[in-house]
Design goal:
Helices cover about 50% and strands about 15% of the residues. The chain has about 260 residues and is of the alpha/beta class. The strands form two sheets. A six-stranded mixed beta sheet has the order 1-2-3-5-7-10, with helices on both faces. A four-stranded mixed beta sheet has the order 4-6-8-9. The structure holds coenzyme A (COA). Coenzyme A (COA) binds near residues 64, 106 and 135.
């Protein structure tokens, strides 16, 4: 398997680790493609009964899409980028086998969105969640504008996306964004415990549960397209240029509304 992710199949559990620790496991185009291939393996390999998705190292799950990579994009590239992300996140969400996010640190932007596309989220105590895209003059583009509402409701979702406030693992637990918070040492064990419990049930029934719960949110697919278009539109603004340049230059952005 490619180098931006590590995979391991043991006792019917397929563990996918995003492996760019020096870049806080940020999602570049290569990671998205590698994740798509890994999900292909999950769908086609009968030995795989469940999946754990995590980040390499102890600091970050995923700190978002790779800002350096998309900083010079215009809307056509932005649309492709968002569409590719949506395709793989939808594949995760609609997988008939249980997928658990082991959130081992920062889950920001695309990282929070990746965790939200999984069926269950277990966070370590040091994990932090947020959707900081508007700091860059863009919006969440991997399903966040829709899935965050599903987990925490419209009011809190709007607040987090507009203020970019980061929340702790325990706040995420209280809001319903994560299922459990455990120590970092116990994170993988907790994920294994939940998967092994699910494995004792009828696999066909499990996949039907996933399908039926997802069916509740089907009307969102029009809204996903609105998100992709809006994300791409943002990339033609001066504020997007300013926001991403400020991040790269490690300074505060000065937005003008242009
Ligand atoms: N894209 C690209 N590179 C990223 C990144 C991202 N989303 N998040 C972190 N990195 C890189 C940093 O640029 C830095 O690289 P460098 O060592 O070459 O300078 C490295 O990862 C370490 O990050 P750093 O910012 O030095 O760590 P920190 O502990 O001070 O802060 C974060 C951690 C996660 C709070 C901070 O990196 C951050 O705010 N990241 C961006 C989050 C974001 O806006 N995500 C949404 C993107 S759409």
């Amino acid at each position: 398997m490619a180098s931006t992710i590590l995979t391991r199949l043991e006792n019917n559990i397929f563990t996918i680790t995003i492996n760019r620790p020096d870049k806080m496991n940020a999602l570049n185009g290569e990671v998205i493609a590698d994740l798509q291939n890994a999900m292909q393996e999950v769908y086609s390999n009968d030995e795989i009964k469940g999946v754990i998705l995590t980040g390499s190292g102890v600091k970050a799950f995923v700190a978002g899409a790779d800002i350096a990579e998309f900083a010079n994009y215009k809307s056509a590239q932005g649309k492709l980028m968002a569409s590719n992300g949506h395709a793989v996140f939808n594949r995760i969400e609609n997988c008939g086998k249980p997928v658990i996010a082991a959130v081992n640190g920062f889950a920001l932007g695309g990282g929070c969105e990746l965790a939200m596309s999984c069926h269950i989220r277990i966070a370590s105590e040091n994990a932090k969640f947020g959707q900081p895209e508007v700091n860059l003059g863009i919006i969440p583009g991997y399903g966040g504008t829709q899935r965050l509402i599903q987990y925490i409701g419209k009011g809190k979702a709007l607040e987090l996306m507009m203020t970019t406030d980061m929340i702790s693992a325990n706040e995420a637990l209280t809001m319903g964004l994560v299922n459990h918070v455990v120590s970092q040492e116990n994170l993988m064990a907790k994920c294994h415990e939940i998967l092994n419990k699910i494995f004792t049930k009828g696999p066909g029934a499990i996949s039907k549960v996933i399908e039926c719960v997802n069916a509740h949110f089907e009307p969102q697919h029009g809204a996903f397209q609105t998100e992709i278009n809006s994300f791409a539109d943002c990339m033609n603004t001066t504020d997007f240029k300013e926001g991403t340049t400020a991040f790269v230059e490690k300074r505060k952005a000065n937005f003008t509304g242009k």
